[in-house]
Structures are given as C-alpha cells and as structure tokens.
Amino acid sequence: MAYVVPTEFVTRMVDAGESKLLMSTRDTLIRAYMAGAILALAAAFAVTVSVNTGNPLLGAVLFPVGFILLYLMGFDLLTGVFTLVPLAVLDKRPGATWAGVLRNWTLVFCGNFAGALTVAVFMAVIFTFGFSEAPNAVGQKIGHIGEGRTVGYAAHGAAGMLTLFIRGVLCNWMVSTGVVAAMMSTTVSGKAIGMWMPVMVFFYMGFEHSIVNMFLFPSGLMLGGQFTVMDYLVWNEIPTVLGNLVGGLTFVGLSLYATHVKTAPKRVLG
C-alpha cells in the first residue's frame, strides 16, 4: 500500500497545515461547507442503518465512508485544521501566524456549520414528509440523541461537563489519527484503510465530534427533541469544540511533530 515513513508523513502534515492556512477565504469556505455537508450525510446514514437494523456497530462500521470521501476530495473539517494548521506556525513557515490560524479555524467552523445545517434541514424534511407528519423512527432517534447528549450531561453538572469535554478530546484523538493515517499511504486503498479504523472507533464509542453534532442537534431541535438551542451550545457544541481542539492538537499534531520533526538529540554512549 506504498507506506510512507513517519518522518515523511509528518512533514506532509506541516505542508498541509501551511496550505490550509494560506488558502483564500472563498476556497476555505467552499471546502468547509462541503465537508460539513458530506459528514452530516454520513451521520444520517449511520443513524438510519443503526435504527433499521438494530445494530449500532454496523452503523459505526459504515459511517467512515463519508469521512473518507470528503478527505479524498480535499475538503476540510474543523477537527482536521485544529491539528494541522498550527504546525505551520510552529515550523516557522513563511506567512504563518497565530492570527492566520484563528482566521482559518473561524472560517472552517462557519463553513462546516452551514454545510451540516443544510443537510439537517433536508433530512428533517425527509423524516417528516415536509413537516406534514410526526418524525419517522430515524427522526425520533435523532431527537432522543439530542436530548441525551445535552440535558443528559447537564443533569450531572460539573461531572457531566467533564465527561463531555473528555469525549471531545478522545474523539479528535481518533479522527485526527485518521487524517494522519491517510498520509501514511500513496494509494487510495491505503488511505481508506488507514482512515477507517480510528473513525469507526470514535463513532461507535459515542465520542463527541463538533461537526457531526452540527447536524445531529439542529436536526433534533427540528424533529421535536426536548432541549433548547442554549442547551446545545452550552452542554455540547462549545465544550466539544474545545475538547476536539485539545485532543487533535495535543495527542496527534504536537506529539508527532515533536518526535519526528523536532527530534531530540541522540544519546551519546560510552
């Protein structure tokens, strides 16, 4: 599968971060919008599979299809740019600044949200026949997911917030590992295999992904979920974004960069 050694694929990570950082506003927004939309469709697909088969594992096994497609088409998720873009600044690439990093993150967040919200509206129309009847079984499930992962956390207070944050950390540890795994191969099959496992792990384990949630929770609100927009923001989206940032940047981006680019001097024996 044309394996790429760590010293090479970590350099590719920095190159990718630099490319995304210097990308035009138009292209950044287009790529982020499409990434949010495709991931939302994958989430809708996975929930549909889980409900119709009664097997959540099958939904998790199939969910990575969307992630793989958006990666191969060169679209950008917030979780990925959290991990890659800061590396360009740390590596002192020309034109790379922290202000540029914040600009990129903001644009990608907005694009991802717009794409996911578009699909949320489309799927809510489908699940309710144009809002003319009660949600079908899949729509009801999405509404319950929204309740459990907002007011469900709130019911536990600080412990619930900590749990939510840690699930966000673990999520992007896995998702960003998938992004990096795609750089370990030069073939489409190798990239797909590398991405599949960590993305499946995050979805099945119920970890919190900020962009998936941009679909699930607005959908849930439209489908009768018993929670509010403020519940969604305070008890899911904001802590999830912060957890995703910490997980991807700390456990994937910085750790790989520190040991494969800024390698410590070798020990002197004798």
What is this structure, in a nutshell?
The protein has 270 residues and is an all-alpha fold. It is built from 12 helices and no strands. The model has no long low-confidence stretch (mean pLDDT 97).
Keywords:
single chain; 270 residues; mainly alpha; Glycerol uptake facilitator protein; globular
Which helices and strands appear, and what pairs or packs with what?
Layout: H1 6-21, H2 25-53, H3 56-62, H4 64-72, H5 78-90, H6 98-128, H7 137-148, H8 151-154, H9 157-182, H10 188-204, H11 210-222, H12 229-260
Structure overview:
This protein is mainly alpha-helical and 270 residues long. Helix content is 77%, strand content 0%. Helix 5 packs across helix 12. The longest helix is centred in the last third of the chain and has 32 residues. The radius of gyration is 19 Å and the shape is globular. It starts with 5 loop residues before the first helix and ends in a 10-residue tail after the last helix.
Largest sheet: none
The name of the CATH architecture is Up-down Bundle
Distance between the termini: 41 Å
Extended strand count: 0
CATH first level: Mainly Alpha
What is CATH's topology name?
A: Glycerol uptake facilitator protein
* Tally of contiguous helical segments: 12
CATH superfamily: Glycerol uptake facilitator protein
Helix percentage: over 70%
